[in-house]
Amino acid sequence: MVTLDFSSSKPGKRKSNPHEFSVEEYKEVNPELVKYRETKQIKIQQVNPTGISYSEKNIYMVSAEGLHVFGVNGKEILKKNFTDGATCVYANEKHIFIGSENYLLKLDSTGQIICKSDINPNSWFTSIAQRNHDLYVADAGNKLILKYNTDCKKTGEFAGQSRSTVIHGFIIPSAVFDVAINPDQELWVVNPGIHALQHYRDDGSLIDFWEKTSIEIEGFSGCCNPAHIAFLPNGNLITSEKGMVRIKEYSPKGDLLSVVAEPMKFEGEKAPDIAVDEQGNILALDMDKKMIRIFQPK
User: What are the DSSP E strand ranges found in 150-203?
Assistant: First the structure.
């Protein structure tokens, strides 16, 4: 007679798998790597936050409901609702540029709309950066970087490269795709499907890149990371990851310099959008906790 124990396959009855992969061990970070401390939180009420920017002592946040502007003291000083909501934002000293899924808005400092771009079919705008009179918009829907002038007119686009000798375009498995301009006015784009940071010319040709695929603290893992980037005044890069959420600081060449916020500081799996102020403090928009969290260098 052969007796089969079917109960062993039931929850709580299975033997542990010694080869089962777990990310829990990677959530622990060497305390010596953590060189920032959280100093302030701004709670967000009754909205679904989607993006953040910083300019001239003001914090600009967009949500599924519209635009919200806060002073550095956390007080909301402007609120503007949009029928289509908003997905990303970039602000300078005079104007606010907002992505609303598949079109671009330009607002003045009071929230009045100055211009609106044409609707771009199949687009999903996820990030906006500005260099001189040009705007660069990350379009996760079409897997392109779109170029606009500051009058909301589209002037170009490019599809990117995965490596300097092989053209594959941007690999965008999900709606995370970021673009930023560093203090030297260089255009950098995340190619999230290959965990790469890429430096481009204005015509879309690749100048330089670095990539780090690893679940270890030095690299990026999952389908599409880093989800968000921002540059410090000294040119170092801040990255934010989804899944196992963590915020880190890298040199321009891709060397890990420090950890801003380790995974244990987060409850969910959504990557915080990030912005940087003139003092080098990190503003992290925590989508899960619905708050803006400010981290300062120790």
Answer: 154-158, 179-181, 187-191, 196-200
Tell me what the mean pLDDT of segment 244-266 comes to.
97
242's tokens: 């989804």
Distance between CA atoms of 29 and 279, rounded to whole angstroms? 25
The reply to whether the predicted model has a pTM over 0.70 is: yes
Give yes or no for a cis peptide into 226 (omega within 30° of 0): yes
Task: Please state the domain extents for the chain.
Answer: 32-297
pLDDT in tens, 14-72: 455 554 446 777 788 999 999 999 999 999 988 999 999 999 999 999 999 999 999 99
CA-nearest of 192, 201, 99, 225 to 152 is: 99
Domain 32-297 classification at class level: mainly beta
6-36 burial, b at 16+ Cβ within 10 Å, e below that, comes to: eeeeeeeeeeeeeeeeeeeeebebeeeebeb
- Half-sphere exposure at residue 193, Cβ-oriented, CA atoms within 13 angstroms: 14
Contact between residue 266 and residue 221 where contact means Cβ atoms under 8 Å apart: no
